[in-house]
Amino acid sequence: MVQKPMLSFVISVCTQRCFLFLCLSADSSSSVIIEMILKHIMTHTNFTIFHPAVFVLLGIPGLEAYHVCLSIPFCLMYITAVLGNSILIMVIITERNLHEPMYFFLSMLAITDILLSTTTVPKALAIFWLHAHDIAFDACVTQVFFVHMMFVGESAILLAMAFDRFVAICIPLHYKTMLTWPVVGRIAVAIVTRSFCIIFPVIFLLNRLPFCRTNIIPHSYCEHIGVARLACADITVNIWYGFSVPIVMVILDVILIAVSYSLILRAVFRLPSQDARHKALSTCGSHLCVILMFYVPSFFTVLTHRFGHNIPRHVHILLANLYVVVPPMLNPIVYGVKTKQIRDGVVHRFFDIMAWCSASSLG
């Protein structure tokens, strides 16, 4: 026997499509009016409202024929991101000369990158390879929570790293006394708490919504506004909270980072020797690269999603997928290339592993 919510859903969808079919000859404004009428009817009719057991993720609509081809670079980038950040964390933990606040924040950034890419890419690969389009409602909400929390958290970590560089370059004599390990621990707790508190209400904003039209999400992973738009209720609160609160916090982080680096550059160019200026700038170069790789694609994605109405949908979704895997892949590479201590630590660990393998084979 078909359950009543699902039967009601089927009836409502069939009714909607019948109305639209009968009005295909009408102009575009008539079709819009019909859609609005149907949405109003379903919103105020209790028997059509339900929470879907599963959502259906389409992957990248319009590029279904290229899913397998797209999966190869996505898989390689994901593996590179996980391995690169894991090696970075291992080197920071095992090398005693890297037990400093800057590298502690860098390890937090690496953990965030692993979580961000792991939250989204494996499901996208399952869609591309196994046609596993279904995702449970609770799993979808969980994915929304972690994607947005990692985004806000990474922004806060970059701000903490900028503050660390500000203290180290502008007031170096107070660096050891200001950034003690208890202070660094409180900063880390504040980053996690802020990110959690900002994104946690999204769970309730999604759970309160009734869904009555479709459970198909034209994306490869769940994101807040994309899921909310499937509801047959007013989502004004979701839109305002989903866009304003995280974006305002991230913009505040960007402003504070810009202020920090303007003060850093002013202090650097006041240094008497060119070697001192070069050394100070080199310590900030990798951090600036990571900041640009994080904020430029994110703001570009938000702006194209908000104002790029003429851009095809598959371009938006492709950019969103690249955003969650390309910066996590490049961050450990940038720090490995630009930071001598990390580069030396990786080489040291590599030779230790080779020596252990040689000893094991001889034994």
Polypeptide structure, described:
α1 packs antiparallel against α2 (28-43). This protein has 363 residues and is mainly α. The chain has a three-stranded mixed β-sheet. The model is unreliable at 1-35 and 37-47 (pLDDT under 50). It is 76% helix and 2% strand.
Distance between the termini: 66 Å
The tally of beta strands, per DSSP, is: 3
Number of DSSP helical runs? 13
**Would you tell me the structural class of the helices and strands?**
mainly alpha
Average pLDDT score: 82
Radius of gyration (Å)? 25 Å
What's the helix-strand series?
HHEHHEHHHEHHHHHH
Question: SSE layout and pairings?
Answer:
Elements: H1 4-22, H2 28-43, E1 54-57, H3 67-94, H4 101-130, E2 134-136, H5 137-170, H6 175-178, H7 181-207, E3 216-217, H8 224-228, H9 236-268, H10 274-307, H11 313-323, H12 326-338, H13 340-362
Parallel strand pairs: 1-3
Antiparallel strand pairs: 1-2
Helix pairs in contact: 1-2, 3-4, 3-12, 3-13, 4-5, 4-12, 5-7, 5-9, 5-10, 7-9, 10-11, 10-12, 12-13
Keywords, separated by commas or semicolons:
mainly alpha, three-stranded mixed β-sheet, 13 helices, disordered N terminus, transmembrane, membrane, olfaction, Olfactory receptor, transmembrane helix
Brief sketch in words of this structure:
By secondary structure, this protein is an all-alpha fold.
